[in-house]
Amino acid sequence: RQYPTSAFNQLITLTRRTTLGTIRNFSLSVLRFIGLIIFSLFMGLIYRDIGKDASNIISNTAFINLSLANIVFVNSVAVILSFPTEASVFLREYRANCYSVAAYYCSKLFADFIPMMA
């Protein structure tokens, strides 16, 4: 399909709009932050004394993998669960040939992943 703007412009515009929506939804941001704090405390208790030596390399690797999986899945679920509320707007704008599906989903992921990585 041909779109009136480039894929990069679509991505920038949609990311800006999604970021504003995320910032305006203060309760969701607070709930995510509280969940992150609880997960961090839980992981801190589990992996408190693993140390820095090579004998605990499996524990260190497990901690890193579990932390990354948490970041990915928590944010992916947020994107998936928010779609039904935005479906009517998305379908109207997609049918009007405003942007591609790929630009929409990439912008949702960028806007939701980057704040949680910090």
Can you tell me about this structure?
This protein has 118 residues and is mainly α. It has one domain. 81% of the residues lie in helices and 0% in strands. The chain is built from four helices and no strands. It has helices at residues 7-24, 26-46, 57-95, 101-117. It is elongated, with a radius of gyration of 18 Å. It starts with 6 loop residues before the first helix and ends with a helix. The mean pLDDT is 83.
Features of this protein?
single chain, elongated, mainly alpha, 4 helices, 118 residues
Largest β-sheet summary: none
Radius of gyration: 18 Å
The number of distinct β-strands equals: 0
How would you classify the helix and strand content by structural class? mainly alpha
Strand and helix order: HHHH
Distance between the termini: 36 Å
Helix content estimate: over 70%
Note the overall shape: elongated
Number of helices: 4
Q: Which runs of at least 5 residues are low in confidence (pLDDT < 50)?
A: none
Work out the strand percent: under 5%
- The domain tally reads 1
Average residue-wise pLDDT: 83
InterPro entries: ABC2_TM, ABCG_transporters
Organism: Culex pipiens
Membrane topology: Multi-pass membrane protein
Transmembrane segments: 30-50, 62-83
Summarize the structure.
The protein is mainly alpha-helical and 118 residues long.
Furnish the topology, listing elements before pairings:
Elements: H1 7-24, H2 26-46, H3 57-95, H4 101-117
